[in-house]
Protein backbone atom coordinates (compact mmCIF):
# COMPACT_ATOMS: atom_id res chain seq x y z
CA UNK A 1 0.00 0.00 0.00
CA UNK A 2 1.58 3.34 -1.03
CA UNK A 3 2.48 5.84 1.71
CA UNK A 4 0.06 8.74 1.93
CA UNK A 5 1.60 12.03 0.77
CA UNK A 6 0.60 14.82 3.12
CA UNK A 7 0.11 18.29 1.67
CA UNK A 8 0.92 20.65 4.51
CA UNK A 9 0.38 24.40 4.47
CA UNK A 10 2.25 26.31 7.14
CA UNK A 11 4.13 29.56 7.62
CA UNK A 12 5.53 32.17 9.97
CA UNK A 13 4.70 35.83 9.51
CA UNK A 14 8.35 36.89 9.30
CA UNK A 15 11.12 37.30 6.77
CA UNK A 16 11.69 33.88 5.20
CA UNK A 17 15.18 33.34 6.56
CA UNK A 18 16.87 31.58 9.52
CA UNK A 19 16.58 34.69 11.72
CA UNK A 20 15.31 33.09 14.94
CA UNK A 21 15.06 29.79 16.76
CA UNK A 22 11.53 29.19 15.48
CA UNK A 23 12.53 29.82 11.87
CA UNK A 24 15.49 27.48 12.17
CA UNK A 25 13.28 24.87 13.82
CA UNK A 26 10.68 24.81 11.04
CA UNK A 27 13.39 24.54 8.41
CA UNK A 28 14.85 21.50 10.17
CA UNK A 29 11.45 20.04 10.99
CA UNK A 30 9.90 19.98 7.54
CA UNK A 31 13.16 18.76 6.03
CA UNK A 32 13.03 15.83 8.45
CA UNK A 33 9.40 14.81 7.86
CA UNK A 34 9.09 11.97 5.32
CA UNK A 35 6.51 11.76 2.54
CA UNK A 36 5.15 15.28 2.76
CA UNK A 37 4.70 18.25 0.45
CA UNK A 38 5.09 21.49 2.39
CA UNK A 39 4.10 24.97 1.29
CA UNK A 40 5.50 27.68 3.54
CA UNK A 41 4.15 31.23 3.76
CA UNK A 42 6.67 33.88 4.78
CA UNK A 43 7.70 37.42 3.97
CA UNK A 44 10.25 38.90 1.61
CA UNK A 45 13.18 39.09 1.35
CA UNK A 46 13.57 35.34 1.02
CA UNK A 47 16.81 33.55 1.88
CA UNK A 48 17.17 31.33 -1.16
CA UNK A 49 19.43 28.84 0.61
CA UNK A 50 16.74 28.41 3.26
CA UNK A 51 13.94 27.57 0.82
CA UNK A 52 15.30 24.09 0.09
CA UNK A 53 13.55 22.80 3.21
CA UNK A 54 10.15 23.39 1.61
CA UNK A 55 8.61 22.17 -1.62
CA UNK A 56 7.10 25.60 -2.18
CA UNK A 57 7.63 28.98 -0.55
CA UNK A 58 5.17 31.80 -1.11
CA UNK A 59 5.48 35.36 0.15
CA UNK A 60 2.75 37.26 1.94
CA UNK A 61 2.00 40.71 0.52
CA UNK A 62 -0.51 42.04 3.08
CA UNK A 63 1.17 44.91 4.89
CA UNK A 64 2.07 43.78 8.40
CA UNK A 65 0.32 45.63 11.23
CA UNK A 66 0.71 43.41 14.29
CA UNK A 67 -0.50 45.92 16.87
CA UNK A 68 -2.81 48.88 17.32
CA UNK A 69 -6.32 49.84 16.24
CA UNK A 70 -5.79 48.56 12.69
CA UNK A 71 -5.11 44.99 13.79
CA UNK A 72 -8.59 43.60 13.08
CA UNK A 73 -8.60 45.07 9.57
CA UNK A 74 -5.09 43.69 9.05
CA UNK A 75 -6.20 40.18 10.02
CA UNK A 76 -9.19 40.47 7.66
CA UNK A 77 -6.87 41.36 4.77
CA UNK A 78 -4.44 38.59 5.73
CA UNK A 79 -7.33 36.11 5.89
CA UNK A 80 -8.37 36.99 2.35
CA UNK A 81 -4.81 36.49 1.10
CA UNK A 82 -4.43 33.20 2.96
CA UNK A 83 -7.79 32.06 1.59
CA UNK A 84 -6.49 32.56 -1.95
CA UNK A 85 -3.42 30.47 -1.13
CA UNK A 86 -5.59 27.71 0.33
CA UNK A 87 -7.82 27.63 -2.74
CA UNK A 88 -4.76 27.35 -4.99
CA UNK A 89 -2.81 24.81 -2.92
CA UNK A 90 -5.66 22.64 -1.63
CA UNK A 91 -3.70 21.38 1.40
CA UNK A 92 -4.75 18.30 3.31
CA UNK A 93 -3.83 19.97 6.62
CA UNK A 94 -2.70 23.32 8.01
CA UNK A 95 0.03 23.69 10.63
CA UNK A 96 -0.66 27.04 12.33
CA UNK A 97 2.62 28.17 13.88
CA UNK A 98 2.45 30.60 16.83
CA UNK A 99 -0.85 29.86 18.50
CA UNK A 100 -3.09 32.92 18.39
CA UNK A 101 -0.94 35.37 16.40
CA UNK A 102 -2.14 37.02 13.19
CA UNK A 103 -1.25 34.33 10.64
CA UNK A 104 -2.77 31.61 12.86
CA UNK A 105 -5.98 33.63 13.03
CA UNK A 106 -5.96 33.98 9.26
CA UNK A 107 -5.43 30.23 8.81
CA UNK A 108 -8.28 29.53 11.24
CA UNK A 109 -10.74 31.84 9.52
CA UNK A 110 -9.88 30.74 5.99
CA UNK A 111 -9.47 26.98 6.54
CA UNK A 112 -13.05 25.87 5.99
CA UNK A 113 -13.14 22.09 6.45
CA UNK A 114 -9.34 21.66 6.31
CA UNK A 115 -8.05 20.34 9.67
CA UNK A 116 -5.67 22.53 11.66
CA UNK A 117 -2.83 21.60 13.99
CA UNK A 118 -1.71 24.59 16.06
CA UNK A 119 1.94 24.74 17.13
CA UNK A 120 2.93 26.85 20.15
CA UNK A 121 6.39 28.47 20.25
CA UNK A 122 6.51 30.46 23.49
CA UNK A 123 6.22 34.15 22.50
CA UNK A 124 2.58 33.46 21.56
CA UNK A 125 1.90 32.09 25.05
CA UNK A 126 3.69 35.06 26.65
CA UNK A 127 1.54 37.43 24.59
CA UNK A 128 -1.65 35.66 25.72
CA UNK A 129 -0.57 35.96 29.34
CA UNK A 130 -0.07 39.72 28.97
CA UNK A 131 -3.10 40.70 26.93
CA UNK A 132 -6.82 39.89 26.96
CA UNK A 133 -7.10 40.32 23.19
CA UNK A 134 -4.15 38.00 22.59
CA UNK A 135 -5.71 35.45 24.94
CA UNK A 136 -8.99 35.64 23.03
CA UNK A 137 -7.08 35.05 19.79
CA UNK A 138 -5.34 32.02 21.30
CA UNK A 139 -8.70 30.59 22.36
CA UNK A 140 -10.15 31.15 18.89
CA UNK A 141 -7.30 29.24 17.23
CA UNK A 142 -7.37 26.50 19.88
CA UNK A 143 -11.12 26.01 19.38
CA UNK A 144 -10.64 25.60 15.62
CA UNK A 145 -7.70 23.18 15.94
CA UNK A 146 -7.89 19.41 15.95
CA UNK A 147 -4.63 19.29 17.96
CA UNK A 148 -2.39 21.76 19.78
CA UNK A 149 1.33 20.95 19.90
CA UNK A 150 3.67 22.18 22.62
CA UNK A 151 7.35 21.18 23.01
CA UNK A 152 7.17 20.64 26.80
CA UNK A 153 4.49 19.67 29.28
CA UNK A 154 5.26 22.92 31.15
CA UNK A 155 4.21 24.98 28.11
CA UNK A 156 1.21 22.73 27.51
CA UNK A 157 0.08 23.37 31.09
CA UNK A 158 0.27 27.14 30.55
CA UNK A 159 -1.80 26.84 27.38
CA UNK A 160 -4.31 24.68 29.26
CA UNK A 161 -4.69 27.37 31.93
CA UNK A 162 -5.05 30.16 29.36
CA UNK A 163 -7.78 28.22 27.55
CA UNK A 164 -9.50 27.28 30.86
CA UNK A 165 -8.95 23.56 30.23
CA UNK A 166 -11.50 23.49 27.41
CA UNK A 167 -9.06 21.79 25.03
CA UNK A 168 -6.99 19.59 27.31
CA UNK A 169 -7.66 16.51 25.19
CA UNK A 170 -6.24 18.29 22.12
CA UNK A 171 -2.88 19.11 23.70
CA UNK A 172 0.06 17.01 22.53
CA UNK A 173 3.65 17.31 23.75
CA UNK A 174 6.21 16.80 20.97
CA UNK A 175 9.74 17.81 22.06
CA UNK A 176 11.71 19.80 19.56
CA UNK A 177 15.07 18.66 18.24
CA UNK A 178 18.14 19.50 16.20
CA UNK A 179 20.01 17.69 13.40
CA UNK A 180 22.29 15.76 15.75
CA UNK A 181 24.31 14.23 12.94
CA UNK A 182 25.75 17.68 12.16
CA UNK A 183 27.02 18.33 15.70
CA UNK A 184 30.75 18.07 16.44
CA UNK A 185 32.33 17.39 19.84
CA UNK A 186 35.75 18.94 20.50
CA UNK A 187 38.66 16.73 19.45
CA UNK A 188 40.51 17.19 22.73
CA UNK A 189 39.10 17.50 26.25
CA UNK A 190 39.58 20.79 28.10
CA UNK A 191 42.73 21.18 30.25
CA UNK A 192 42.64 19.28 33.51
CA UNK A 193 42.54 20.97 36.91
CA UNK A 194 40.66 23.89 38.36
CA UNK A 195 40.68 27.33 36.84
CA UNK A 196 38.67 30.09 35.17
CA UNK A 197 36.09 28.96 32.64
CA UNK A 198 35.62 30.10 29.08
CA UNK A 199 31.86 30.66 28.97
CA UNK A 200 29.49 31.31 26.08
CA UNK A 201 25.98 32.72 25.96
CA UNK A 202 24.08 32.83 22.65
CA UNK A 203 20.63 34.20 21.93
CA UNK A 204 18.48 37.26 21.51
CA UNK A 205 19.56 40.16 23.73
CA UNK A 206 16.32 41.28 25.34
CA UNK A 207 14.87 41.62 28.81
CA UNK A 208 13.46 38.10 29.06
CA UNK A 209 16.73 36.45 27.99
CA UNK A 210 18.35 38.35 30.91
CA UNK A 211 21.93 38.31 29.63
CA UNK A 212 22.63 40.93 32.30
CA UNK A 213 22.46 38.14 34.90
CA UNK A 214 25.56 36.50 33.42
CA UNK A 215 27.45 39.77 33.16
CA UNK A 216 26.73 40.81 36.73
CA UNK A 217 27.54 37.30 37.99
CA UNK A 218 31.15 37.73 36.80
CA UNK A 219 31.67 40.48 39.38
CA UNK A 220 30.70 38.02 42.14
CA UNK A 221 32.78 34.99 41.16
CA UNK A 222 35.92 33.92 43.00
CA UNK A 223 37.60 33.09 39.70
CA UNK A 224 38.08 35.40 36.69
CA UNK A 225 35.84 33.52 34.27
CA UNK A 226 35.51 34.91 30.74
CA UNK A 227 32.20 35.27 28.89
CA UNK A 228 31.50 35.54 25.16
CA UNK A 229 28.04 36.88 24.31
CA UNK A 230 26.84 35.98 20.81
CA UNK A 231 23.71 37.67 19.51
CA UNK A 232 21.84 40.85 18.71
CA UNK A 233 18.90 42.62 20.30
CA UNK A 234 17.48 45.78 21.78
CA UNK A 235 19.65 45.58 24.91
CA UNK A 236 23.03 45.03 23.30
CA UNK A 237 24.28 48.61 23.76
CA UNK A 238 23.07 48.65 27.37
CA UNK A 239 24.80 45.33 28.09
CA UNK A 240 28.08 46.54 26.61
CA UNK A 241 27.90 49.71 28.69
CA UNK A 242 27.10 47.77 31.85
CA UNK A 243 30.06 45.44 31.30
CA UNK A 244 32.34 48.48 31.05
CA UNK A 245 30.85 50.08 34.19
CA UNK A 246 31.54 46.88 36.12
CA UNK A 247 35.17 46.79 34.99
CA UNK A 248 34.67 43.69 32.84
CA UNK A 249 36.05 45.06 29.57
CA UNK A 250 38.69 42.30 29.42
CA UNK A 251 36.38 39.49 30.58
CA UNK A 252 33.25 39.98 28.47
CA UNK A 253 33.30 39.87 24.69
CA UNK A 254 30.35 40.68 22.42
CA UNK A 255 30.03 39.02 19.02
CA UNK A 256 27.20 39.52 16.51
CA UNK A 257 24.50 36.97 15.69
CA UNK A 258 26.02 33.97 13.90
CA UNK A 259 24.36 31.63 11.41
CA UNK A 260 23.98 28.26 13.04
CA UNK A 261 26.74 26.58 11.04
CA UNK A 262 29.22 29.20 12.30
CA UNK A 263 27.90 29.02 15.87
CA UNK A 264 28.25 25.25 15.88
CA UNK A 265 31.86 25.54 14.70
CA UNK A 266 32.64 27.79 17.66
CA UNK A 267 30.78 26.00 20.43
CA UNK A 268 33.39 23.25 21.02
CA UNK A 269 35.98 25.93 21.84
CA UNK A 270 34.25 26.88 25.12
CA UNK A 271 34.16 25.18 28.52
CA UNK A 272 30.49 25.70 29.36
CA UNK A 273 27.27 27.32 28.13
CA UNK A 274 25.34 29.84 30.24
CA UNK A 275 21.57 30.06 29.81
CA UNK A 276 19.98 33.08 31.52
CA UNK A 277 16.31 33.37 30.50
CA UNK A 278 14.30 34.42 33.56
CA UNK A 279 10.70 34.23 32.26
CA UNK A 280 8.97 31.82 29.90
CA UNK A 281 11.12 29.61 27.70
CA UNK A 282 9.24 27.28 25.37
CA UNK A 283 12.12 24.86 24.91
CA UNK A 284 15.56 26.42 24.49
CA UNK A 285 17.01 24.73 21.41
CA UNK A 286 20.36 26.39 22.01
CA UNK A 287 20.69 24.32 25.18
CA UNK A 288 20.55 21.11 23.18
CA UNK A 289 22.90 22.58 20.58
CA UNK A 290 25.45 23.30 23.30
CA UNK A 291 25.05 19.87 24.88
CA UNK A 292 25.38 18.13 21.53
CA UNK A 293 28.80 19.75 21.23
CA UNK A 294 29.88 18.48 24.63
CA UNK A 295 29.35 21.64 26.66
CA UNK A 296 28.11 21.47 30.25
CA UNK A 297 25.16 23.83 30.70
CA UNK A 298 24.47 26.18 33.62
CA UNK A 299 20.81 27.12 33.35
CA UNK A 300 18.16 29.27 35.01
CA UNK A 301 15.85 26.86 36.81
CA UNK A 302 12.63 27.33 34.84
CA UNK A 303 10.01 24.53 34.65
CA UNK A 304 10.31 23.90 30.91
CA UNK A 305 14.11 24.01 30.95
CA UNK A 306 14.27 21.71 33.95
CA UNK A 307 12.03 19.29 32.06
CA UNK A 308 14.46 19.23 29.13
CA UNK A 309 17.74 19.09 31.03
CA UNK A 310 17.07 17.55 34.42
CA UNK A 311 20.29 16.33 36.01
CA UNK A 312 22.22 16.91 32.78
CA UNK A 313 22.78 20.58 33.68
CA UNK A 314 23.54 22.84 36.63
CA UNK A 315 20.56 24.96 37.77
CA UNK A 316 20.62 28.36 39.43
CA UNK A 317 17.91 30.77 40.58
CA UNK A 318 16.54 32.71 37.55
CA UNK A 319 17.65 36.34 37.47
CA UNK A 320 19.99 35.94 40.47
CA UNK A 321 23.63 36.82 39.64
CA UNK A 322 24.93 35.53 42.98
CA UNK A 323 23.31 32.13 42.49
CA UNK A 324 24.83 31.92 39.01
CA UNK A 325 28.25 33.01 40.29
CA UNK A 326 28.24 30.22 42.86
CA UNK A 327 27.31 27.65 40.20
CA UNK A 328 30.12 28.84 37.90
CA UNK A 329 32.76 28.79 40.63
CA UNK A 330 31.73 25.30 41.71
CA UNK A 331 32.09 24.05 38.16
CA UNK A 332 35.45 25.80 37.77
CA UNK A 333 36.81 24.17 40.93
CA UNK A 334 35.61 20.63 40.21
CA UNK A 335 37.13 19.28 37.01
CA UNK A 336 35.76 15.78 37.59
CA UNK A 337 32.24 17.16 37.86
CA UNK A 338 32.75 19.04 34.60
CA UNK A 339 33.73 15.78 32.91
CA UNK A 340 30.63 14.07 34.31
CA UNK A 341 28.44 16.94 33.10
CA UNK A 342 29.99 16.74 29.64
CA UNK A 343 29.06 13.06 29.39
CA UNK A 344 25.57 13.75 30.73
CA UNK A 345 25.15 16.61 28.23
CA UNK A 346 25.98 14.38 25.27
CA UNK A 347 23.64 11.65 26.50
CA UNK A 348 20.81 14.12 27.06
CA UNK A 349 21.21 15.74 23.64
CA UNK A 350 20.69 12.35 21.97
CA UNK A 351 17.09 12.46 23.17
CA UNK A 352 16.32 15.42 20.92
CA UNK A 353 16.96 14.48 17.31
CA UNK A 354 14.91 16.47 14.78
CA UNK A 355 14.18 13.23 12.94
CA UNK A 356 12.23 12.00 15.96
CA UNK A 357 10.37 15.32 16.17
CA UNK A 358 9.46 15.10 12.47
CA UNK A 359 8.20 11.53 12.76
CA UNK A 360 6.05 12.35 15.79
CA UNK A 361 4.50 15.41 14.15
CA UNK A 362 3.84 13.45 10.96
CA UNK A 363 2.11 10.67 12.93
CA UNK A 364 -0.09 13.23 14.67
CA UNK A 365 -0.87 14.85 11.33
CA UNK A 366 -1.85 11.51 9.80
CA UNK A 367 -4.11 10.85 12.77
CA UNK A 368 -5.79 14.24 12.41
CA UNK A 369 -6.30 13.95 8.65
CA UNK A 370 -7.69 10.43 8.91
> Strand order within the widest sheet?
3-2-1-4-5-6-7
Low-confidence stretches: none
Specify Rg, calculated over alpha carbons.
Answer: 21 Å
The CATH superfamily of the largest domain appears as: Glycogen Phosphorylase B
Compute the average pLDDT: 92
Total domain count = 2
Largest sheet: 7 strands, parallel
- The CATH architecture designation of the largest domain is 3-Layer(aba) Sandwich
Kindly identify the CATH topology of the largest domain. Answer: Rossmann fold
Structure description:
- With 370 residues, this protein is an alpha/beta fold.
- The chain has two domains: 6-177 and 353-369, Glycogen Phosphorylase B (Rossmann fold, 3-Layer(aba) Sandwich); 180-349, Glycogen Phosphorylase B (Rossmann fold, 3-Layer(aba) Sandwich), CATH 3.40.50.2000.
- The chain contains 14 helices and 13 strands.
- A seven-stranded parallel beta sheet has the order 3-2-1-4-5-6-7, sandwiched between helices.
- Helix 10 (285-292) links the parallel strand 11 (272-275) and strand 12.
